[in-house]
Amino acid sequence: MATAAPTFEFVDLFAGLGGFHVALESLRGEGVFAAEWEPTLNALYKTNFGIQPWSDINDLDTDGDIEREVPDHDVLTAGFPCQPFSKAGDQMGFADTQQGSLFFKVYQILRVKRPRRFILENVPNILKHDGGRTKRKIIEMLHSLEYSVKVEHFSPHEFGIPQVRDRAYFVGSLDGLSRFEWPTKHSGPTDITSVLRRDTSLTRSIPERTLHAIDMWGDFLRRSPASLKMPSFPIWSMEFGATYPYEDETPPGVWDRRPVWGLRQMGVKGSFGQSLECAVDGQKERIPSHASRDSDYQFPRWKRAFIRQNREFYQDNRPWIDPWLDQWKPWEMHSSFQKMEWNAQGEARNIDNFVLQVRASGLRIKRPTTSPSLIAFTQTQVPILGANLTGERRYMTPAECAELQSLGGISLPTSDIEAYKALGNAVNARVVKAIAERLLEGLGNPDSSRIADPEPLGTKHASAASKRTDAREEGASRTNPLRTEPVLVAGRSV
């Protein structure tokens, strides 16, 4: 079947799973260059898109290297590394010599190749990083290349996708942006069941200790009186019965002040009301980890508030909490299982109605309207679906997480943990498409019928993969010198 000829060419830097590629190819763009340093994703990019990516973008050292190796193109896309600007990292920004400086490589390629448009993506904290100076520096540098620049942030849930994952987008044009408008944000409800699959095969069971913790907090919710409003603050069960000092003094301060006796003979108790009439080393084992860090002589206000609120909550609810403590003995569990975050205020208290996630801050319980934000998950952080959502408690599969990134039609890493990590670092293709279709006016008039498409990209797996394959078969044979052998795309040999 004949396919429409591409209307513009693009490059995909820091390509990852290829979210930018999926979005721009759906708007009749043709990828002519990609760069991805992670070996598994580098190989997978060729499998999915027929392009062998450049490996280390830093090897494009000089202007001459860029002029020679990077083809001319109309649109540059880059989800440059976000860790230096993320609240979850050290926030070293441009001072991060390994990753923070990579924006300057994007700048160099823009300066040498002069594409007419660009889309850059990063964490939203980049807009506030270093008091706003990082954002201003980026915009000033792009203006110096004569690009008009606009900046906005979007989350997939604002496009009907059940995931809250805010990201900042910089768009630029050499032709001005006076006619450019950001896409309209979706205000309707979302539901995680829209991306769940009933025919999935489970590759990893939930550990028994995790299931035990879920049962424990499920029983906590069942025991709580219906008339009781569940706390909005995190529940720290280790503070139930604790009386150690935390307002004007802290355990580390006492240990420094009284190195021999410590908290002995002060009439105070540790986690779960444990006695502190023991040696200092023993006391340190009976004080919660959030209150026993060396030299932590004054707790921040938020921590003091959580400790106070949990102790008051316990005193007000001892008649039903004490039997729960006696049955479940949470002090025998890992500290992350001793805490719970209830993010479903007003809902029926059946834990199997919800999406669960084990975090260092505790077992987080979320409404099934959205998934936890996809990040580079560790093995334990993958969202768990309650039994009433899927028929049994299970982890969300990589394929379901791919739907949350609008990447349901591509092949993923064979290792689940590598797939979760890659999806956590991916750009959402539906969000990019919504931004790009308005930015690309004048580059070849992408099919306007696609603009009204309300569905996330990739939800129609077979048709999406088939359309990409057909377009690639024709285009790669004509223009892509890197494609020299058959590859497997979404289960098909092309």
UniProtKB/TrEMBL annotation:
InterPro entries: C5-MTase, C5_DNA_meth_AS, C5_MeTfrase, SAM-dependent_MTases_sf. It is an enzyme of class 2 (transferase). Signal peptide: none annotated. The keyword Zinc does not apply. Keywords: Methyltransferase, Restriction system, S-adenosyl-L-methionine, Transferase. Its EC number is 2.1.1.37. The keyword S-adenosyl-L-methionine applies. One of its GO terms (biological process) is methylation. The active site is at 82. It comes from the Bacteria. Residues 444-494 are annotated as: Disordered. It catalyses: a 2'-deoxycytidine in DNA + S-adenosyl-L-methionine = a 5-methyl-2'-deoxycytidine in DNA + S-adenosyl-L-homocysteine + H(+). Transmembrane segments: none annotated. SUPFAM superfamilies: S-adenosyl-L-methionine-dependent methyltransferases (SSF53335). Residues 467-476 have a biased composition (Basic and acidic residues). GO terms for molecular function: DNA (cytosine-5-)-methyltransferase activity. Belongs to the class I-like SAM-binding methyltransferase superfamily. C5-methyltransferase family. This is Cytosine-specific methyltransferase.
